[in-house]
Amino acid sequence: MQASDHSPAAQLPGRAAFPHRHLTGIAGLQPHEIVFLLDESEQWIEANRTRAKSDKRLEGLTQINAFFENSTRTLLSFEIAGKRLGADVVNMHAAQSSVKKGETLIDTAVTLNAMRADVIVIRHMSSGAVELIAEKVDCPVLNAGDGWHEHPTQALLDALTIRRRRGNIAGQRVVICGDILHSRVARSNMLALTALAAEVRVVAPSTLMPAAIERMYVQPYTDFDAALEGADVVMMLRVQNERMAGGYIPSTREFHMRYGLTPERLARAKPDALVMHPGPMNRGVEIESSVADHPTRSAITEQVEMGVAVRMACLDVLTRAERGVEGWA
Amino acid sequence: MKTLFTNARLVCPTGGVTTGDLLIDGETIAATGSFEAPSDAQAIDLAAKTLAPALIDLGVFAVDKAACRAGGIARVGLMPDQSPVLDDPGIVRRAALSGKPALWVHPLAAATRGLEGQDLGEMAINASAGARAVATGRGWIGASATMRKVLAYARDCGLVVVAHAEDGGLAGGAVATEGETATRHGLAAAPAIAEALAVARDLTLAEETGARLHFRQVTTAAAFDLIRAAKRRGVRVTCGITPAHLLLSDIAISDFRTYARLSPPLRDESDRQAALTAIKDGTIDVIASGHDPRGPEAKRLPFADAEPGMSGAETLLALALGLVRDGLIPIERLFALLAANPAKILGLDTGTLAPGKPADLVVLDPDAPWQITAETMVARAGNTPFDRLPVQGKVLALYKGGTAID
């Protein structure tokens, strides 16, 4: 399915299709607003595959990527997205050492605002930090990941990947496995996929499963094999090494035994089930290379490709008001 | 000097609600009810307004005279978590004088030196310098052997131990109670049973040592059950709570509202309901403000980086009066929770309207409506989770030792 002509968003004019100033999370978005962002992303997939990838719609606008937490791929993805739209992209890499945590956050926000940024992309290690900054600045703010809370563009790119590969999101049985407790990717995906009527199963040992997770309309499993039965999509999460040293999981090899995605395990899912991973992967731990590199079933590199398209769409949509796009100003 | 209040609605934790007069002679209450008015008394017609014992706020973190005056509070039990820590007689004595003349400050000395949870504090010396109890402070004493010694030694000194009821092993690093709200917001959370674990241990130790134990804040159903059962067995235990834990559940931290970040954290709705039951059945002895004014530099931060605590002194009475209006408890019982019981725990001969007691009195209109607004609070900081809440109950006058406090 390409752009969904029958989605309610298609009928809403201009700003009514996406009436939000910021994108701080999937929580708070209506299903048709999520679909609208996915639809908007489609055009950039094709554009990115051509040789002349540039578009000038964000020309003259300043995009600041303020990353308070280390990141390579997300930062790169946002930078490429901004540049392909013609924005002047500036990266502020505030490592944890230079910006004392939290204390100067409001001041940093005020500073960025005074520099007349037109859109700010933020990653921060504290849940809620992006919303705090969004309250203090005059331009749109995009959450590139805050603590364990949300990572909305990741959920959008995952949803887009599923929609393109599976034809639909509604009714798909999506299994998310790994460190659910500390994962903003899992939270945003649970919100987005359940909003779009997927059946979501989350899998983790009890030590890495958040309390009351069923209140997010997902089914918790501790047994990966049971959860995989009939799955359409298997989404593996990265497990941080420091959490596998005994604090939450006895060892890496024990995690692999219970939760590693092997070809044998994958056989429990549907024969054409899709394999996803937000990266970076711990090959041989949560996912075996033969699965990760499977030519037809792995969508892992496609996720990266969708990431740029989704971020271009988000940057475009959020800046329409200040660019004076008709119907959005 | 004599002051005569006439036409008062007298609310006394021991005497109930009556209509009549009250006479102050010097610093004490001389007579109540119907008596022959002395001719040399200055008469004040209260026109049916309520006259009750002034509040005693057990366990505040700051000496905030303006907030106490606004809240009808004449005495506070000051937590040892000061800078410097209240663990030395000189510091304790200075703290005890810090509220004069408007406010009695009763220091709670540090149970362990420097509040570090290891070496015993100088309890007897600090008591002689004015400390009315010893307290573990904001934290929990992790080593059971240390807590056992604290309780045994405090019993020897005749001092109550004011404890914080959260198992640090479970609650360490957590900023919220485990549940849907913490999960949705991606916040580090501890299970509510962290409280029951701490309460169970300390109750067991108090029972064995025979010490008097007061849990400053108890907030969960499981812990109330333990305390209820212990009281029945005759353990010398009391407990308190703040209006925040009676009126708010953890949903209040939604959207990362740092003003609702408290220690212990707000609980889920079933625990809040259990707290209301515990007020009604007498398991809870004290309602206190936990007054902890924090400016924006401590609160305008990402949720986990913000300091816990709320500014509560000036809203304590109005919020607590809601319990009376809701029919949960009668007003004289409310003043037992706000005055008579904290007095008893601190060993103070006050908290009622009985003749001979200090004339620490509050005149209030329990029905007068007003709205809590964070930016106009008189406290040192307006960090209240109740911003914009309409409440009822205004303090009209406050007397400490027979003298009106401006």
UniProtKB/TrEMBL annotation, chain A:
Tell me how this protein assembles.
Answer: Heterododecamer (2C3:3R2) of six catalytic PyrB chains organized as two trimers (C3), and six regulatory PyrI chains organized as three dimers (R2).
Q: HAMAP family annotated for this entry? A: Asp_carb_tr
Q: Where is the Aspartate/ornithine carbamoyltransferase Asp/Orn-binding domain?
A: 171-317
Record's keyword annotation contains Manganese: no
Q: What function does this protein fulfil? A: Reversibly catalyzes the transfer of the carbamoyl group from carbamoyl phosphate (CP) to the N(epsilon) atom of ornithine (ORN) to produce L-citrulline. Catalyzes the condensation of carbamoyl phosphate and aspartate to form carbamoyl aspartate and inorganic phosphate, the committed step in the de novo pyrimidine nucleotide biosynthesis pathway.
Associated pathway: Pyrimidine metabolism; UMP biosynthesis via de novo pathway; (S)-dihydroorotate from bicarbonate: step 2/3
GO cellular component term, pick one: cytosol
Highest lineage ranks of the organism? Bacteria, Pseudomonadati, Pseudomonadota, Alphaproteobacteria, Sphingomonadales
Positions contributing to carbamoyl phosphate binding: R73, T74, R123, H151, Q154, G279, P280
Which EC class is this protein assigned? transferase
Record-listed E.C. numbers: 2.1.3.2
Which organism is the protein's source? Sphingomonas naasensis
Domain Aspartate/ornithine carbamoyltransferase carbamoyl-P binding as annotated: residue spans: 21-163
Q: Supply one GO molecular-function term.
A: aspartate carbamoyltransferase activity
- List the InterPro entries: Asp/Orn_carbamoyltranf_P-bd, Asp/Orn_carbamoylTrfase, Asp/Orn_carbamoylTrfase_sf, Asp_carbamoyltransf, Asp_carbamoyltransf_Asp/Orn-bd
Which NCBIfam families does the UniProt entry name for this protein? asp_carb_tr, PRK00856.1
Q: Which UniProt keywords apply?
A: Pyrimidine biosynthesis, Transferase
Instruction: Please tell me where L-aspartate binds in this chain.
Output: K101, R184, R238
According to its UniProt record, which protein family does this protein belong to?
A: Belongs to the aspartate/ornithine carbamoyltransferase superfamily. ATCase family.
| Superkingdom of the organism of origin | Bacteria
Q: Which reaction does it catalyse?
A: carbamoyl phosphate + L-aspartate = N-carbamoyl-L-aspartate + phosphate + H(+)
What protein am I looking at? Aspartate carbamoyltransferase
Name the GO terms of the biological process aspect: 'de novo' pyrimidine nucleobase biosynthetic process; 'de novo' UMP biosynthetic process; amino acid metabolic process
TrEMBL record, chain B:
Give one GO molecular function term. Answer: allantoinase activity
InterPro entries given in the database record: Amidohydro-rel (IPR006680), DHOase (IPR004722), DHOase/Allantoinase_Hydrolase (IPR050138), Metal-dep_hydrolase_composite (IPR011059), Metal_Hydrolase (IPR032466)
One Pfam family per UniProt:
Amidohydro_1
Q: Name one GO biological process term.
A: purine nucleobase catabolic process
Which cellular component, as a GO term, is one annotated location?
A: cytoplasm
Q: Which CDD domains match?
A: DHOase_IIa (cd01317)
Classification via Gene3D superfamilies: Metal-dependent hydrolases
What residue stretches are annotated with the Amidohydrolase-related domain? 142-403
Keyword Manganese present in the record's keywords: the answer is: no
| Keywords for this protein | Pyrimidine biosynthesis
Against PANTHER family, the record matches this protein to: ALLANTOINASE
Stated name of the protein: Dihydroorotase
